[in-house]
Amino acid sequence: MPWDLEAARVTALPDDAFYIPNFISEEEEQILLQKIQSAPLPRWTHLTHRRLQTWPSALTKTNTLLSSPLPPWLTTPIIDPRFKELGIFAESPHTAPNHVLINEYHPGQGIMPHEDGPAYHPLVATVSLGAAIVLDLYDKDKKKDGKPESEQDYLRIPRFRILQERRSLLVTRGKMYTDFLHGIAERVVDGDLGPETVCNWGLLGEKDGFLGGSFERRTRTSLTYRDVLKVAKVGNTLKFLGRS
Ligand SMILES: O=C(O)CCC(=O)C(=O)O
């Protein structure tokens, strides 16, 4: 495995994006999927176009995380030792991710173009499970606040497309985090795939499955690791909630 981040740089993208295929093994992928599926039902938040789990908990209205460790299955081996070896969170305030969103997309489901905003250190590390998907990146400069202004905006042609294979890691940070929106189109087939249209084509682990230029979507689950900037210690929770 290329535990050298520079070797994984997506050079066609502005700074910084890194893509590592086969970041976790098939066995590790299965264990993670089992843990996700066996989580109690209330763990899931059902949205119209996907469902998600938030670990260790959702942020408060003031974008604060109530301090609590991530469960071991989200920590080992992804954060410890692999993120540590890569040094990807070395410069973030807590030197490690403290928050994980788990999104599940069935074929035809996606997520509207959006930005992740100022609650987090500007770095996202995404591990894909179960199936491949194309992530679209849109210029933010035409937007005032990062929110699409009209339905038409969702249909704009993406500036870049990243193909995320199952078991891969995608890291975006810096300008890639602050200057672009990201989204996943609601479609059942990802098409028009090739070296000219997919910016991480040269870094893919197994191109063979994509050489036909398209693939049918299957259920894909993503783990997005981030460092929430504001953390309230549990001892301060009551005070924080205004109850003492
Ligand atoms: O599933 C993904 O790769 C993207 C998830 C995402 O955009 C988010 O959690 O904000």
Q: How is the topology of this model organized?
A:
Layout: E1 17-20, H1 26-37, E2 44-46, E3 51-55, E4 64-66, H2 72-75, H3 78-86, E5 99-105, E6 111-114, E7 123-129, E8 133-139, H4 151-154, E9 160-164, E10 169-173, H5 175-178, E11 180-184, E12 189-190, E13 215-216, E14 220-226, E15 230-232, H6 237-240
Parallel strand pairs: 4-15
Antiparallel strand pairs: 1-10, 2-3, 3-5, 5-14, 6-11, 7-10, 7-14, 8-9, 8-11, 12-13
The protein binds 2-oxoglutaric acid (AKG).
Helicity level, as a percent range? 10-25%
Q: Please give the count of helices.
A: 6
CATH topology: Jelly Rolls
The biggest beta sheet, please? Answer: 7 strands, antiparallel
Q: Which shape, going by the Cα principal axes?
A: globular
Strand fraction band? 25-35%
Distance between the termini: 51 Å
Q: Domains counted in the coordinates: how many?
A: 1
Strand runs, count: 15
